[in-house]
Amino acid sequence: MTKQKKSEVLKNLWHDYNFIVIFLIIFIAFLIINGSSTSWTSITNILLHSSILGTIALGMGLVILTGDFDLSVGSSFVFVGGLTIIVYNKVGSIIVALLFAILLGAICGLINGILVGKFKMPSFIVTLATMLILRSLSQYMMNEMGETRYRVDASLGSYKTLFMFGNGNVCTIPNLAIVFLLLAAALIYMTTSTKFGKNIYALGSNEKAAQLAGVGVVSTRIAMFVMCGALVGVAAFLKIAKDTSFDPATSGQSFELYAISAVVIGGLSLSGGKGKMAGIIFGTMAFTLIDKIITALGMNALLNDSVKGIILLIAVGIQMVRKRSK
Q1: Cα separation of 113 and 120, whole Å?
Q2: pLDDT tens digits for range 136-174
Q3: The domain spanning residue 266 has which CATH number?
Q4: Is residue 134 within 8 Å of 108, Cβ to Cβ?
Q5: Angle formed by the axes of helices 175-193 and 217-243, to 10°?
Q6: Where are the alpha helices (DSSP H) in 174-216?
Q7: How far does Cα 158 stand from its chain's mean position?
Q8: How confident is the model at residue 259 (pLDDT cuts 50, 70, 90)?
Q9: Does residue 319 register a pLDDT over 70?
Q10: Domain annotation covers residue 222
Q11: How many domains does the chain fold into?
C-alpha cells in the first residue's frame, strides 16, 4: 500500500469513526484522573449510567437522520413514566407496564409525527409545544394526587423482580446496559442492512430526491417519531425498574438537549442523512464520562453543563472540519 493510499485510508477512518477517538480521549482522561479508584465495576457503571439516556438518544438519532428534532423526549419520558407507575400499581404486572410504556410513548411520537410529517409543521415548534404540554400534564397529575413524586408500590408481589431487573447484572454487565446495547444493535442492523434504513438516510439527505425515488416521505418521517416515542417508553420503564420513582419536576430535565448532544458527539449530522447509529453508543458513554470526570476532580456540580457545552462545541467543530475536508 502506497503512502498516499494509507493517508486516504486513515482520512476515511477519521471521517467515519472520529466518535471513537473522541470517546477514547475522554475515557483515557477519566482513567488518569480517577487513578487507583478505577475498577471493573466503575467501568461497567459507565454503561449502566448511559443506558437510559442512551436509549432516548437512539430514538433522537433516528429522528435527526431524517433532518428533524424531537425536543419533547424529556417531558414525554416523565409523562410516560408517571402514568406507567400508576398502571403498574393498579395491575401489578411488569409485562403490562412495559407494553403500556412502549405504547404510550409511541402514541406521543405519533402525534408529533403526524403534525410534522402530514401537516408539514416545523419539528422544532411541534416538539417544543408537546414538551411544554407533557411536562405540565405530568406535574398537574402529580399535584392532583397530593404527592411529590410518582412511586412504585413496594408491597406488590412483582416489585422485587422489577427492582432486581433494574439493578441486577449478567456476568457483571448491568441488565439495563444489555437492553441498551441490544436495542442499539437492532437499530444499527435496521439502518445499515434494510431497505427501510436506506430510505431513512435518503430522506435526510434530500427529501425531494427521496420522494422521486419512491420513498414514502410522510410515512417514513412519522415512523421515525413513533420509534423515537417507543424508545422513550422503554427508557421510562428502565428508569422505573432502576429507581422505582419519577419526579415530574426534575426527572428527564434537559434530556432532550443531552440526547441531541450524545447524537452529535456520536457523529450524526444535524442536517440529516449522515452518520452511524453505532456512534450514539460512544457519544452517550462519552457524555456519561464527563459527569464522572467532574466528580473525580471534585469540581462544583453546577459546572457540569458548562463542560458538556464545551465538549459539544468541539464535537460540532470536528463535524464542520470533516465536512469541509470532504
Answers
A1: 10
A2: 999 999 888 888 889 999 999 999 999 999 999 999 999
A3: 1.10.3470
A4: yes
A5: 170
A6: 175-193, 195-205, 207-212
A7: 28
A8: very high
A9: no
A10: yes
A11: 1
